[in-house]
Every structure is written in C-alpha cells, then in structure tokens.
Amino acid sequence: MTNLFQETLTTFVYRARYSAGQLADLTGIPKRTVANWLSGRVRRPRQWQEVVRLAAALHLSAAETDDLLTAAGHENLSTLRRDAGSGGEQGLLASWPAGHNDQPARHGRRGENSPGGATGLPASGAFLRRCPLGPAGYI
C-alpha cells in the first residue's frame, strides 16, 4: 500500500535538500519523528500544525501546502484558517495569506530562520547547510 504522505513529503524534502535533522531544527519537531515520516514508519502526522510547520520550513506554496495537508489526511489551508483559534494557530497560517497561492512569507534569506518571525518556527542559528544527499540521506 502506498503512503501518499511519505511520498509527498519526501519529494518536497528532496527538492529543498534538507536533512531530517535540519527540518527538526527549523520546525521544533523531533528528528526521530521527521525521520519516521520520511521512512514511512509513521504513516501521517496526528496534528495539522506539524504539517504546516514543515511546509513553512520547506518554503512551500499554498497549493503545495494543501497537497501535503491532504496527503496527511488533514483539511486544506482555507478550512484550517476558517476553523483555527486565535494566537498560535493563526500565526502558523499567516505564512500563506488568504487567497494567495504563492510562496509563504519569508523572513530573511532561504535557509535562515529569524527569531520571532511570522512562521512561528524556533530560531536555529545562522545559515543552515543544505544536505546534498538524496532521499536515503534524510533518515
């Protein structure tokens, strides 16, 4: 049986050339959890917030984020935005303004993570080195 979330996530991670460890640093999601999603050991995230954090770290467009959310069995951005509570949930979704299917708002250059930026991601230091490895290098 095919794991659509694993395939979709692996495609985006491979394109961005991030390792599981780099994604963990950018999102605050444990490295083992990211590695389990990439390997297919865990079929999908339980919480949509984790998927949105991954999408922001990978600089996915709204359409790509919707694809990742759907593959994980969660609602799309429009529905999440409508149903989200105040504060942190709205902050996570702020990277993709309503009605826009372009790239999420960025703070700093790609590979940097600004403390306190609108993505709600934790600061990870200066530049992250990109991992030149293929999919096998992400686990």
Keywords:
single chain, mainly alpha, 434 Repressor (Amino-terminal Domain), 7 helices, globular
Question: Would you mind describing this structure in some detail?
Answer:
This protein is an all-alpha fold and 139 residues long. The chain has a domain at 1-97: lambda repressor-like DNA-binding domains (434 Repressor (Amino-terminal Domain), Orthogonal Bundle), CATH 1.10.260.40. It has helices at residues 4-16, 20-27, 31-39, 48-57, 62-71, 77-83, 88-93. The longest helix is centred in the first third of the chain and has 13 residues, at 4-16. The protein is globular. The model is unreliable at 105-139 (pLDDT under 50).
Shape: globular
The separation of the N and C termini measures 21 Å
State the share of residues found in helices, binned by percent.
40-55%
CATH superfamily of one domain: lambda repressor-like DNA-binding domains
Structural class designation: mainly alpha
Radius of gyration: 14 Å
- Could you give the order of the helices and strands? HHHHHHH
State mean pLDDT (0 to 100 scale). Answer: 77
Strand tally: 0
Q: Which fold name corresponds to the CATH topology of one domain?
A: 434 Repressor (Amino-terminal Domain)
* Strand residue percentage: under 5%
Q: What does the largest sheet look like?
A: none
CATH architectural designation of one domain: Orthogonal Bundle
Number of helices: 7
Give the low-confidence spans.
Answer: 105-139
The CATH class of one domain is Mainly Alpha
